[in-house]
Amino acid sequence: xxxxxxxxxxxxxxxxxxxxxxxxxxxxxxxxxxxxxxxxxxxxxxxxxxxxxxxxxxxxxxxxxxxxxxxxxxxxxxxxxxxxxxxxxxxxxxxxxxxxxxxxxxxxxxxxxxxxxxxxxxxxxxxxxxxxxxxxxxxxxxxxxxxxxxxxxxxxxxxxxxxxxxxxxxxxxxxxxxxxxxxxxxxxxxxxxxxxxxxxxxxxxxxxxxxxxxxxxxxxxxxxxxxxxxxxxxxx
Length: 236
Ligand code: ADP
Ligand code: MG
Description:
It contains 8 helices and 11 strands. It is α+β, with helices and mostly antiparallel strands. α3 packs across α4 (about 85-100) and α6 packs across α8 (about 185-200). The relative contact order is 0.17. Bound molecules: adenosine-5'-diphosphate and magnesium ion. Adenosine-5'-diphosphate binds near residues 58 and 229.
């Protein structure tokens, strides 16, 4: 909690009240698993960090002016270590082409999450003038955006309520392992909904928050079974 307060304090000194992956530490502080990674500010550091990460890397532009990174070509997936420095330059060039005066905080170099085995979910929060902090859960991609297949509860969300959220969406069978896939670790998803609900309850200054995607993975041997790979929030 003290760590989360520190992260929020540093960002509140900024002009911008919108935060992206530079706020990933907030999730960390609340025990929500995030892939290994770092935000770097040079091609050389990008190479070093990529070399220290298992397998290929994902690299993302970090800028408060760019909210939807992939829309501008600001996300590079499956980057071999040897390409990290060039990719750094590419991402910055794309951001500059999109908006010449964009504030660029750096480039995030992040461990890859296995999306083949995982299901992309979304956990979010919006403060509703009538109901207060509404926590949302749904599956990523068309499920939330097109089919509006979402579940809502007012924070703080209890464990039984979080479980209901994962059960009541129409796309719930995909979490349980439809089409011969392994079921995801639902308990980890439920726990994450609870932790995010606690975070936004502890910090009323967080007006909006989205983890999109939270990748839900099958229960494997020991490792984390959820990964918050992207976050975006608005603070007061
Ligand atoms: P944005 O939503 O701003 O476009 P994201 O960080 O969500 O940027 O990245 C876009 C997409 O790239 C994600 O929805 C996911 O499919 C994929 N992706 C991002 N980070 C990772 C990662 N670490 N491992 C695997 N896939 C990733
Ligand atoms: Mg995203």
